[in-house]
Amino acid sequence: MQPVEARVDAVGHACKITGNADMYGLGIRLGFYLQWYISIIATWIARSEVRSMRISNLLFVAATFLALVIQTARESLNSVEIYVILLLAFGGYLSLVPLYLWRIMTGCVPKLDPSRYPSVRNGPLFSALSFVLLFAVSSFQLWFWSSRVRQPDTNGCPQYGFFFTKLRLDSKGLITTNLVFYCLLLTSCFAILIATALKFFKIIEEPTRPKISRNYKTKLLIVQSALNTIVTTTVVVATELTISWNSIVGVWEISSAGQLIPVILGIGLTCQVLYIGFFGAKESEESGGPEGPEGLSGNSDSESLYAVDLTEISDSRCDNDLFGDPHVVDSIRGHEIPGLRTSAYSPLH
Q1: What is the pLDDT of residues 298-315, one digit of tens each?
Q2: What pTM, to 2 d.p., does this model score?
């Protein structure tokens, strides 16, 4: 039995939406959920797998977003369906919200910022692609909330979204909140690009990061993992409730290859991470394989990457990067930029 609410329109007709299972069917959603949760776990027990998992998830999001753009251009999706797909595509970046609330509460003190002391650093490829994708999805979100959501759909039924409660998708409060958020996000994108240029030409210097003990770093990582888990769970609940509130049918079964592939990949990644977490270290010891000071991955704070850190603009104590570790590859010179380090934060990971 499908967990949907029975609704009727103004003249008593049943309000049901036949969903697009290839875009947000049960298999697609489970694939997203499994990747989000197992990525958080992997930062603790299978750090050697984190980078490849992040790239995999990023490509998964990019493919979903590209399909969304195509389906929207063909006008084959209504507003609430676009909203659900955007929850999946943008859900990973929503962990930036509690992160910045935490920074405000702590006065932007670097030693209290968990994003500055990662267990695994991101590579330049992931960071650059993540920045581009975030800019594209944010621009689409701005169009959606300023234009598309205001257009009535053909069935004439009210549609609902999630903001810690059930709200009409076209309500002024929900629209205004999202418009303000994405306007700020896109404005910050341009600020980050300006900061990157200033750092590249050494007009401003990279601020030093205070050193902390390993025990203190572990405590910060616990805080970051807890925030990521809370945000992930909130996005999962928002997605499932939205589908139920809007009586979307046809998206509760895994009946096609398009849905089987994501969920099987998610299950495979979960099994791989758990296996490495429970048996990988033992096998490494038995084979005499080296282990890095940070765990299985061998990543440490001294790791050097060909990327520009965009986490600080000028001399400000606050981190102005809203994008969870975007970087720009030094493709012109082809060598490492002296004195520049990679950012510490990656959404939901």
Answers
A1: 333 333 222 333 333 333
A2: 0.77
